[in-house]
Amino acid sequence: MFPFRPLALALLIAGPATAQDLTDPHLSVIPRTEAEAARVAEITAPPADFTAAWPFEVNSGGAATVRARLTPDAFSQPSGNMSFDRQLQFHIGNGLFRRLWVSAPSSTIASDGLGPLYNARSCQRCHLKDGRGHPPEGPEDLAISMFLRFSIPGSDTDLTDEIEGFLATLPDPNYGTQIQDFALPGHAPEAQMLITYEEVELSLSDGEIVSLRRPTYTLETLGYGPLHPDAMLSPRIAPQMIGLGLLEAIPAADIMAHADPDDANGDGISGRPNIVWSVEYGLPMLGRFGLKAGAPTVRQQSAAAFAGDIGISNPLFPGPWGDCTAAQTNCRAAPHGADPEQGGFEIDAEALEFVTFYSQNLAVPARRDIDDPQVLRGREIFFATGCTGCHVPSFVTHRLQDRPEHSFQLIWPYTDLLLHDMGEGLADHRPEARATGTEWRTPPLWGIGLTQTVSGHTQFLHDGRARSLLEAILWHGGEAEAQRDAVIAMPSHDRAALIRFLESL
């Protein structure tokens, strides 16, 4: 592996990178030649011709793309360029991703250690068919694919000098970092989340009325005492899983090249990197994953989900009680599945690597209808409206020694992986690392048109409040307010074309 050079670290923390040797410590990178760098700049430059499909545009995930299946399995395929011998690793990881964990002690030591408090019994229960979660649909629908992040404000003594601009937070003393709404027998769930909606009408240019729903979140049946008076709650929908390894393989320098924290170009868009602490490497890294870019790697994101969502200890998060706090003494004292045969963890390093490999290699489906005139018009509107200021269309990944599926691929994720202030309408007022309470990471748009096919719904944004792609656009504010207003003002046939383009991704 290439070392994380001190110069690169300083550039990563301070601002946009200017050095071409900004590398990523989790990747075995072969540096680009000058000729390759020039070719990358040429192929990812904004196009001039919008009258036809562009070369390679159909393959959103480069050579790792798979054909678009119009079935719920559309997001569950291995990378299209994966060799047969590596597919075995993928399928083992899939089995672990789908595994239903049970309480300890159990005769199946490879599957015990659930909870005692948890949100789901498997990864698949949140990421059903590897797709997008949704809010509960009434009191009888348990919020398996949605939960509440939790924290309280920290103080100056909780700040770290390692990360400039870090916003200190602490776990809630009674409830930790997220609300677990399930528990093993003999333990009380932490709480039940309730959502109420207020309908807010918005008029479009041609007199069409769109109703947006504004959510309010409350907790009932608190199992472990009162909430901290300064508790900050943030609802989170489980995101789709495709293309994660490709996003991980984008050079940090290329992401940082789009950062403009002071809006130096005056376009109203001020993307900032989230710099987070790497549990794996013990240093600050660029955040890429999670709704606020709070995780630097797929492995750390996976390990954190095992610990926080299922209560499964692992090499990165070794506590056998998951997210149980010191105040939850019965939870901490309960039997656990940290067996010596698994290195003292409930899922060992080898199994975690299989799950990581699976998560990295869930393939992006190919675009559909890229030559359709309405799709082409919608793509032109997307660019002309300035949506690409955040939803950057394409990147070329690192050339990698040990990850052939992700190596030197032209990909079309439509994200910059940076933080943007989205305004008060979407604010959760909960910081995460350097992300403020109004900032969110730009979500990738690839595959978004298959949400109904895979997940059986069309609910978008971090909390699923938007019931359509148009509603999701109309919730944009802050740095994206001008783009939202342009969509409101444009003729209805242009809005329809814009949506049609998004549905083709």
Topology readout:
Layout: H1 6-14, E1 29-30, H2 34-43, H3 84-98, E2 117-118, H4 123-126, E3 146-153, E4 169-170, E5 182-183, E6 192-203, E7 209-220, E8 232-237, H5 244-248, H6 252-256, E9 275-278, E10 283-286, H7 298-310, H8 329-333, H9 349-360, H10 373-384, E11 395-396, E12 399-400, E13 410-411, E14 419-421, E15 439-441, H11 451-455, H12 469-474, H13 481-489, H14 492-504
Structural overview:
There is one protein chain. This protein is α+β, with helices and mostly antiparallel strands and 505 residues long. It has 2 domains: 6-84 and 242-275 and 361-504, no CATH class; 101-238 and 293-360, no CATH class. It contains 14 helices and 15 strands. It has helices at residues 6-14, 34-43, 84-98, 123-126, 244-248, 252-256, 298-310, 329-333, 349-360, 373-384, 451-455, 469-474, 481-489, 492-504, and strands at residues 29-30, 117-118, 146-153, 169-170, 182-183, 192-203, 209-220, 232-237, 275-278, 283-286, 395-396, 399-400, 410-411, 419-421, 439-441. The strands form 7 sheets. A 3-stranded antiparallel β-sheet has the order 4-3-8, with no helix packed on it. A hairpin with a 5-residue loop joins strand 6 (192-203) and strand 7 (209-220). The radius of gyration is 22 Å and the shape is globular. Mean pLDDT is 91; it is low at 1-22.
